[in-house]
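Email to the structure team, subject: Membrane protein insertase YidC model.

Hi all, the expression group asked for a predicted structure before they design truncation constructs. Nothing fancy, just the tokens so they can compare against earlier work. One-line instruction: predict Membrane protein insertase YidC, return tokens.
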Amino acid sequence: MFDIILWPFKWIVSAILWAFHELFTAIGMDPASGVTWVLAIIGLTLVMRTLTIPLFMKQIKAMRGMQELQPELAKLQAKYKGKTDQLSRQAMAQEQMELYRKTGSNPLASCMPILVQMPIFFGLFQVLNGVPSAAANNESILVLDNAKIEQFNDAYIFGAPLFSTMMRPGDGNHTATIIIAAIMVVLMSATQFYITKQLSVKNMSDAAKQSPMYRQQQIMLYVLPLIFAISGINFPLGVLVYWTVSNFWSLGQQYWVIKNNPTPGSQAERELNERRAAKGLPPVGKTKEEHEAELEAQRERANRGQRQQPMSKKRQKQQNKKK
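Reply from the structure team: attached below.
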């Protein structure tokens, strides 16, 4: 059943790999070179991540909506605290869904880019996993004909086959496979740690940092890199290339968002407004006239709020004599 579901995604993966391999060999690259196939996998990654940009923008909107909802959700949880009966749980769920409906938030929207990429990821895993047996049996894998499979089977990078894993080195250099895989697992874990840290610390409002969601992200900050480190030993080098490049893409996307379109009330927004102020620009979302009007209103309130220092009776008498 799983293979049937993955079939169209395997076809897409094989077609994109075929197209990029044809492109690179057309410009004179060796068709059986590991570099050629690595570039084809990088091309696959860039195509898939480009296609998920609209979903990424929806993810940002959904995450910000969820952050803004955290105070209301906290009140709702406090309202039903200690109530474990079925009616109370149903009422809480209904009120929670009503909050989502009013604000247009969707908790699942923040997961969409990952959910869309997972079938492609597993499709690539199955394609690469099937290369040795397909080459041995003179078979093709969907769009990749037998000639391409033979070339992929002969593709090595620093002495390690692209289909090899830490646990299954193939006929290549096992030490090279372990070293290359370990380097990519470290890069994957480090980039994921930094991406999560950016999200959970720099690009969250102060109010959101008091929410359960923030505590969950703090846990995931350490759990996700650990998952990558454990699971990475079972993935072919070609899949690790895809995953590592995808993480660097995510890192670049997140950096751009935090620098140019940060969450309102976050540290990133304050830093952006400081940079804008240094250039003589108003804060994000405000015109120069609106900002000047706000500053003027603040000055007026400060002037009205100034209180005269109280004087002793002796000093009051001295001032009255002078008059």
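The beta strands are 156-157, 160-161. Residues 2-81+94-271 form one domain. Ping us if the truncation boundaries need rechecking.
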